[in-house]
Amino acid sequence: MALLLVLWACALLAVLLGGYAAVTHTEAVLARYQLAHARAHYAAEAGLMRALRGLHDPDAARRWVGDGRLYTLRFGDAELRIRAVDEAGKVDLNSASPQVLQGLFRAAGMAAQEAQALATRVVAWRTRPEIEGTADDGADYAAAGRHYAPRHGPFASIEELQMVLGVTPALYRTLAPHLTLWSGQPGPDPNVATSLALAAIPGMTPSRMQEIIAARQRNAADPALAVGVGVTHSVRSQATLADGTRAVLRATIRWQAARIGGTPYTVLRWQEGDQE
């Protein structure tokens, strides 16, 4: 009996020690993962700050260009891949003219009549009625099974466009990289416009687009020749450690160096990862 009790006790201790070892190993793996992820995250933040400095470098020859080109550098043991896009080169949901909106939707593949109808809905969504109480009550939205009516006020986020009747998930994914809320312009700047935004400019022809793209490519090698240095940029910073741990930060940042007693920039939008 004594021998059986000793054997059972040894077996129980072995089970307990095995479980403890497994828990300890799992916690150690999680701790290493969290440490690596934190290092990658802060490396990506360093990339954002480096982009902000590069985009507004006083030396034009060293200044970064906000046309979406790739900049690579190292930060400690992390490889940084950074892209910046000038918000002036996008279509502003709150200030773009109906013609620009229609051109954008057509460039995204919509038929002319559908693009015109969607542009009208976008303008209606963001526009307050001139006389109180005369706003569209959203009958079309109710008929489509939506449980809300148009805001009749400025878009609060780019994602809000998905609520406008006629915007499908596929269409939104196509449009999102070319939209902004922060340019305040009726149309995109052709000198820094993204592909779809450039096609959305009224009167833009394929030959004119080719001329603009060719001129931008000729000047691409020399930052001093770049036209259109804006103050608001969307930056994507990706940091990859030697062990493969990766972190992605996306931010829209407005430069305001003349501000007294405050930071030289304002973060308008902050997202972690590549999911919209």
TrEMBL record:
Gene3D superfamilies: EpsJ-like. This is Type II secretion system protein GspK. Belongs to the GSP K family. It is found in: Cell inner membrane. InterPro entries: GspK, GspK_central_sf, T2SSK_SAM-like_1st. It comes from the Bacteria. Residues 93-182 form the T2SS protein K first SAM-like domain. Its main location: membrane. Keywords: Cell inner membrane, Cell membrane, Membrane, Protein transport, Transmembrane, Transmembrane helix, Transport.
